[in-house]
Design a protein that fits this description.
Elements (H helix, E strand, L loop, with lengths): L6 H5 L8 H8 L3 H15 L4 H16 L1
Helix pairs in contact: 2-3
Length: about 70
C-alpha cells in the first residue's frame, strides 16, 4: 500500500465517487479491506452509512456558510 493511502485516502476524498472495487484496484488492496476502511471512517464520523456522512457534511457546510 502506498504512503498516505488506506483510511486516510478514503476519508480525504481521494477516492470520491469511486466504487469499492475501483478503490481497491487503485490502491492495490482487496475490496474487503476497502470495506473495513470505510467502516472505520464511518465509525470515526459516528454515522452508519455513506448517505448519513454526506448529509452531515452538507449540514456542516451550510452552517459554516451562514
Amino acid at each position: 500500500m502506498a504512503p498516505g493511502s488506506g483510511p486516510d485516502a478514503i476519508h480525504d476524498g481521494r477516492t470520491e465517487g469511486m466504487s469499492q472495487k475501483q478503490v481497491a484496484t487503485e490502491m492495490g488492496i482487496s475490496i474487503k479491506t476497502v470495506g473495513a476502511h470505510m467502516q472505520n471512517v464511518l465509525g470515526t464520523l459516528d454515522v452508519h452509512s455513506r448517505m448519513e456522512a454526506v448529509a452531515r457534511a452538507a449540514r456542516a457546510s451550510a452552517t459554516s456558510e451562514a
